[in-house]
């Protein structure tokens, strides 16, 4: 699946996630959009995980960690507010 628009969709969902964080303070929505952004791998999708450069692996794992942190933050805030 070679699609030239993966990078644009990846960036778009990251921008939408940043909007939810900065403007709306809706952390679970931001985490959801970051998870959707991971579907659109911004790197070569035909390359196996083992063959990727180390910096690409770090980028994707860090992206996943930030997404999990945002989800945890959103759940924690909702729990504290009793929502």
* Poorly predicted segments: none
Secondary structure tally, helices: 3
Mean pLDDT: 91
Number of separate strands: 0
Helix content: over 70%
Provide the structure class.
Answer: mainly alpha
- Distance from N terminus to C terminus (CA atoms, Å) equals 41 Å
Order of helices and strands: HHH
Q: Return Rg in Å.
A: 14 Å
Largest sheet: none
Descriptive overview:
This protein has 83 residues and is mostly helical. The protein has 3 helices and no strands. It has helices at 6-24, 27-39, 54-81. Helix 1 runs antiparallel to helix 2 (27-39) and helix 2 (27-39) packs antiparallel against helix 3 (54-81). The longest helix has 28 residues, at 54-81. The mean pLDDT is 91.
List keywords for this structure.
single chain, 83 residues, mainly alpha
Topology overview:
Layout lengths: L5 H19 L2 H13 L14 H28 L2
Helix pairs in contact: 1-2, 2-3
Describe what is shown at a glance.
The protein has 83 residues and is mostly helical. It has helices spanning 6-24, 27-39, 54-81.
